[in-house]
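User: Sequence recovery, please. Input:
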């Protein structure tokens, strides 16, 4: 079932959301000081392509630098990515088959706002 949901996700919204994260990552990697933001964006783009069967958890060692970085990220790119998730979730929720995909899109909003200090793990872990 996860594979089927991932394939439908990839076709309907995963590719577009991953492209948005990759664009944010490329922009962030242009400057040396924002490379950690770019790496986090690429990591989330990978998750946005194939989210079912994996989850994102907070990294327990993340400290003050992650907090400061997340505040900067929210101001620069987080809002735009979160709005993209909300718009996509609304469009997906129109159909019955799109409701699980819409819920998955809404679960990506917190990580789109605060990507630093998070780790992607399989659900079985």
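Assistant: Recovered sequence (125 residues):
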């Amino acid at each position: 079932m996860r594979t089927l949901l991932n394939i439908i996700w990839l076709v309907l919204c995963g590719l577009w959301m991953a492209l948005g994260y990759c664009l944010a990552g490329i922009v962030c990697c242009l400057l040396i000081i924002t490379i950690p933001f770019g790496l986090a964006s690429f990591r989330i783009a990978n998750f946005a392509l194939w989210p079912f069967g994996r989850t994102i958890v907070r990294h327990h060692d993340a400290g003050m630098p992650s907090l400061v970085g997340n505040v900067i990220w929210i101001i620069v790119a987080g809002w735009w990515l979160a709005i993209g998730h909300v718009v996509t979730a609304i469009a997906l929720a129109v159909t019955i088959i799109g409701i699980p995909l819409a819920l998955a899109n809404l679960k990506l909003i917190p990580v789109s706002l605060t990507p630093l200090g998070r780790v992607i793990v399989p659900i079985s872990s």
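The mean pLDDT is 86.
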